[in-house]
């Protein structure tokens, strides 16, 4: 006599991904902002429990009417805490919340290798909390960018690129679209997290 395994059993790798998503998703937010061309939607990462959020600067542009939506649907108005140089495409936002928030953990992008598995969480086309998986396809040292085939689409900018430990190794920034196709074609780019750590050192010590 034998015991039949349930059809819904997950393997070890699936359980790892499920665990990472469950842990990280509460620290990922949707960002909507009024820009010159209309409305912009992107993704952000909570980096401090008081409500400090890291995202791509092009998501908010001039920063009018920035609304942050949490994973549970709660909405907060955000203000710009620190705007770095335009070339860095990084900005810190702040929301005022009555409770401590879940936060992300930074990894070490100097240790990444082409071929390693990565995860991305974002809000592509407004589909909040979307998880995708891929690998690091290339490391562009000249342009300081991580190339990945994990699906990144409009609305994913500012979201995390994660390693197998759930640590952020990059902030998703852009997709390659030579024929003006606005959707993913398997070539996306992220800013290495170690560069962002350096950017944040430029902020005043009292910023966060």
Shape by Cα distribution:
globular
The rounded Rg comes to 17 Å
Overall residue-averaged pLDDT value: 90
Number of helices: 3
CATH architecture of the largest domain: Beta Barrel
Topology, pairings included?
Blueprint: H1 12-24, E1 28-35, E2 38-48, E3 52-55, H2 57-60, E4 64-69, E5 75-83, E6 91-94, E7 117-122, E8 130-140, E9 145-148, E10 160-162, E11 168-175, E12 188-192, H3 193-201
Antiparallel strand pairs: 1-2, 1-4, 2-3, 3-6, 4-5, 5-6, 7-8, 7-10, 8-9, 9-12, 10-11, 11-12
Q: Can you put this structure into words, describing what you see?
A:
By secondary structure, the chain is mostly beta strands. The chain has two domains: 23-103, Thrombin, subunit H; 109-198, Trypsin-like serine proteases (Thrombin, subunit H), CATH 2.40.10. It is 12% helix and 38% strand. The protein is built from three helices and twelve strands. The strands form two sheets. A six-stranded antiparallel barrel has the order 1-2-3-6-5-4. Strands 7-8-9-12-11-10 form a six-stranded antiparallel barrel. β4 and β5 (75-83) form a beta hairpin. The radius of gyration is 17 Å and the shape is globular. The relative contact order is 0.18. The model has no long low-confidence stretch (mean pLDDT 90).
């Amino acid at each position: 006599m034998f015991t039949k395994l349930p059809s819904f059993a997950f393997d070890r790798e699936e359980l790892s991904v499920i665990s990472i998503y469950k842990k990280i998703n509460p620290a990922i937010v949707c960002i909507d902002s009024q820009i010159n061309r209309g409305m912009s939607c992107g993704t952000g990462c909570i980096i401090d429990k008081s409500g400090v959020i890291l995202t791509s600067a092009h998501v908010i542009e001039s920063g009018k009417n920035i609304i942050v939506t949490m994973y549970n649907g709660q909405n907060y108005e955000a203000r710009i805490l620190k705007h770095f140089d335009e070339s860095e495409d990084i900005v810190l936002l702040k929301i005022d919340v009555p409770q401590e928030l879940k936060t992300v953990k930074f990894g070490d992008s100097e240790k990444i290798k082409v071929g390693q598995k990565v995860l991305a969480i974002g809000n592509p086309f407004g589909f909040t909390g979307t998880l995708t998986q891929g690998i690091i396809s290339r490391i562009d040292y000249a342009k300081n960018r991580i190339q990945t085939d994990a699906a990144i689409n409009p609305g994913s900018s500012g979201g995390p690129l994660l390693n197998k430990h759930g640590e952020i190794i990059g902030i998703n920034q852009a997709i390659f679209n030579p024929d003006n196709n606005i959707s993913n074609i398997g070539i996306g780019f992220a800013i290495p997290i170690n560069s962002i750590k350096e950017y944040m050192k430029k902020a005043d010590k009292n910023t966060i």
